[in-house]
Amino acid sequence: MTSSLKSHYSAVIIGGGQAGLSASHYLKKHGIDHIVFEKKTVAHKWKDERWDAFCLVTPNWQCQLPDHPYDGDDPHGFMVKDQILAYVDRFVKKVDAPVLEGTAVTSVEKTGDAFRVETSAGTVTADSVVLATSLYSRPAIPRAAERLPENILQLHTADYRNPGQLPEGAVIVVGSGQSGCQIAEDLHLAGRKVHMVTGNAPRCARFYRGRDVVDWLADVGQYDITVAHDGMSKKKHDTNHYLTGRDGGRDIDLRKFALEGMSLYGRMQGVASGRMLFEPNLKANLDGADQVYNGINALIDRHIAANGIDAPPASVYVPLWEPESEPAELDLEAEGVTSVIWATGFHPDWSYVGLPIFDGTGYPIQRRGVTGIDGVYVLGLPWLWTWGSGRFLAVGRDAEHIVDHLARYIEVSRQIPRQAAGR
């Protein structure tokens, strides 16, 4: 950690999460002076934006931060929140990055041959900049939330901790991605009445044909496929598959929850007159998730057959429950709804970046973290290069790649003035 600023650095890293710390690790290996600006505290999202029952969705062996692989005794298990925090804390101490916490970056601009970085702690210049603030800066809550009755508690997934945090009564969970489905399960297991508003998120089996599906997919090579492959460039916008590592790992099947009393709906259309309104696409959302589920299993089947692997028989998921109708609305008062959990994701915040590196959707244009502006890098985004880019699995590999590129850039840029002076 650091408490002071120099006027100039070879590199500035913005963001003190696993991506920024990984970049710092490799910059230190190259002997490149740098500073990490962190708006809050190092790795704060793991500490401050996860619910109590949170656990990893991928097995522990995929925790591969730089020079800090999982070192526990359960590589095929799923670390729970306290264990994840301990793993991250050990990494933080090992890296010992020069971090200035509680420091917001307000502007990054090009000035001559360097970059001007304005922060709440002062202004510095740098030869290069690594943007490691991820896509999860601001909770995304739809404007329809403003039309909910004032007596209903509203929380984003970043603020949800446990069922006891909520008032008695029914709960609506809006969004069926990983967080939404896991929180819905958390509430359901606690005996709460849950109304689940679905979207088009896909799902995946936890175990299939005798192994964790993640293990099979690693063998197949899915985690090594890059966005440079045909048809993969749009992956960065995909929603993650829902499943869980809870209690040793299992599928999340919304149809099973429906049989047990959870109410399911299509995508939220809006809120009006004390009612939440829905699109008539519940069946399509459930069928789409199951299609992906069976498609992944079929991929594993082909791998097993092609390699002559001895494994338990193949199977196809058959729906346990079908919706009898497409509910158009939910009367909040009549159903005793007292809480709404918004599992609707996050918005990135690139407002501080005054550089022309973004496409028409506001997403950075880059190839494996290297942008079109010399000395500017992006790190920690989902599908930056592979499926594991934003995770413990591959963020380190991406960090090593951009830092190698950064080191060459700095070396070349410093040679040019020397060559010019020698003429």
From TrEMBL:
Question: Is the keyword Oxidoreductase assigned to this protein?
Answer: yes
Q: Please name the InterPro entries in this protein's record.
A: Auxin_biosynth/cation_transpt, CHP04046_FMN-dependent, FAD/NAD-bd_sf
Q: Which GO terms describe its molecular function?
A: flavin adenine dinucleotide binding; monooxygenase activity
User: What Gene3D superfamilies does this protein's entry cite?
Assistant: FAD/NAD(P)-binding domain (3.50.50.60)
Q: Name one Pfam family in it.
A: Pyr_redox_3
What keywords are assigned to this protein? Oxidoreductase
Give the top-rank taxon of the lineage listed in the UniProt record for this protein: Bacteria
The entry's protein name is MSMEG_0569 family flavin-dependent oxidoreductase
Query: Which organism was this protein described from?
Result: Rhizobium daejeonense
